[in-house]
UniProtKB/TrEMBL annotation:
Residues 145-198 form the HAMP domain. Residues 416-426, 452-465 have a biased composition (Pro residues). It comes from the Bacteria. This is histidine kinase.
Amino acid sequence: MPSLPRLRSPLSRLTARLAHSALPRRTVRLKLTLLYGALFLLSGAALLTITYLLVLGSNGGSLSGGQPAPDGGGPRAGETGGHSPPVPPPRGRIGESTRDVLPAAAREIMELQRDAVLHDLLVQSAIALGLMSVISIALGWVVSGRILRPLRTVIGAAREISATSLHQRLALEGPSDELKELGDTFDGLLGRLETSFEAQRRFVANASHELRTPLARQRTLGQLALSDPDADVTSLRAAHERILAAGAQQERMIEALLTLARSHAGIEVRRPFDLDRLAREVVAARRTDAEQRRVTLRCALAATVAAGHRPLAERLVINLVDNALRHNEPYGWVEVATADEPGRAVLTVANSGPVVPPSALDQMFQPFQRLGDPRTNKEGLGLGLSIVQAIAVAHDATLAVEARPEGGLVFTIGFPHPPGHQPGPPTDHRQERPPAHRPGPPPGHRKEPSPAHRPGPPPQRRGER
C-alpha cells in the first residue's frame, strides 16, 4: 500500500498545476482593469461611509435631542406612527428634549425605527456598491482595451517585421498623445535599422568584390607562369613579385577593414593626448611622399589636448593627409592645422585639387566609393574616409567637409577635450612659418554629413564667431 507522502506529492503537483493554469495572464489590460475597479471600490466605500455617518448623526440629533414643538412635538391625537399605537403628545417643560419627555415604550419604538432605517441604508448601499463595482470593472476592461489598441498594433508589427521587411511602417493615426509618439518613434527606429542593414549588405558585397579581385589576380598570375613553357627565372621572379604585390594589397584591405570594425565598436577608455604633436608626427612622416608628388605640405599647429584613443586618432589624421595628397594636383598644397577652441580640439586638413561637386560630398564617406572614373582612379582602397567618419563618431567628435570653389576640400574635426581641461595660453608649436596665403573657409558650397553620421553640431569656423 503506498504511503501517504507519496500520494500527496502527485496531488499537490496536480493542484498547483491547475491553480497555475486557472490564473489569467497578468497583462497590462488586466492590471489597468483591476486598478480601475479597486479605485472605484475604495472611492465608493469612502463615500458611503461618510454618508452613513452623516445620516447617523442627523437621526441621532432629530430623535434624541432638540426642543419640543409648540404643540408638544409628538403625534396628533388619533394619528399613528408606523405600527405603534397613538401616543399622546408629551407635556414637558420648555428646554427638555423629546426623548426625555416620551414614555419608555415610545422611546424604544423610536430606537427600533432608527436602527431599521440605518440597517436598510447600509444593506442597500452595499448592494449598490457591489453592482457598480462590477460595472466599473467591465467598463475598465473595455476602456483599457481601447486605450491599449495601438500597443497591440506595435506588438503585431514587431512580430511580423524582420530583416527583409524593414520597409514596413506602423503609421499610427489618432491624436498626438504618448501612444502616437511611441508609434512614430518605432517608425523612426525601423527607418534607421533599414538604412543600417542596407549599408551593411552593400558593405559586405563591396568588401567581397574588393577581396576577390586580388585573389583572382594572384591565381591568374600563377596560372600564366605555370602554363608558359618558355618560363625562365626572370619571368617567374616577375610573376612572383606581382603576386606578392597583390598579397600586400590584400593585407592593406584586411587591415583597413579591421580598423573600420574597431572604430565602429567604440572606445571604452579615453585618455588625453596632444593633438598638435600627433599631427606634427604625421606631417613629418608624409613629407617624403608629398615631395614625390610635388605637393607642398605645410602645417599651422597650436597646442591643444583631445580625449580618446590615440592610435585611432592617428589613423584618422593619416587617412585625411593621404587623401589630401592623393587627390591633389602637381605643385598643389596641403595644410594641416590645429586649434584650441571652447570645448573642442579642432583639426583642419585643407588641400588644393580638382573641383568636387557638392552632391558628391556624402558619397565620399561611403565604403568603396571613389570619385571620378573607377577605371582610372585605382589608387587607394575606397575606405579611407569611411574610417575617418567611423573614428570621429567613436570619439564623439564633430565632422564637417567643405568643397572649395577653386578646387579641393577642407575637413574639420572637433575632438572633445578631456574632463577638467583648462585652456592654456596660446602657444605656437609650428615647425615652419606658414606662407602668407592660407586657405580659409570657402564662400561657396558647404556640405556636411547627415546628423546620423555626426555626433554633434559642427565646430564654428574661425571668422564666424
